[in-house]
Amino acid sequence: MSPSGESSADKRLAEVREAALRLLARREHSVVELKTKLVGKGWPEDHVDRVLPALAEAGLQSDRRFAEAFARQRAGRYYGPRKIQAELAQRGIDSALMEAAIETLEVDFAELAADFYRRKYGQEKQEPDFRERAKRSQAMYRRGFESEHLRRLVRA
Predict the structure, then answer these.
(1) Cβ contacts of residue 34 below 8 Å, gap of 6+?
(2) Core-most of 68, 71, 75, 103, by most CB within 10 Å?
(3) Domains of the chain, CATH where assigned
């Protein structure tokens, strides 16, 4: 032990905790993201595994808070629920938290799809042909909107 009474392992854990807190100070992170970033920066995985649960227990890290903030941000950028769910899953969020995060948005995704469609394609006087409708539908699906959101937008 060092003269201050702190072992090198305790010191190392404190350093990992500080690194995690620096990341959390910038934005919310999921546990999976934090672990990936910390291990990627060279922190020992066993130290990271000991620090992250303590941060969650202290309320400094929350997958629920992360999921809600992430979903809000993505909906604000005109992404649909399927895209938001897929991106949350990539970040290690379980399906129950995904559903809860999307429900807390209180967003009408059909209206969000309509707003995005108008911004992207404008108000046209003539109907687009079949090929253009298919192209637009695929673009909307890639943004995570579902067919029920697009029914009135892209007339078949």
Answers:
(1) 20, 23, 24, 48, 52, 55, 61
(2) 71
(3) 8-61 (1.10.10), 64-105 (1.10.10.10), 109-150 (1.10.10)
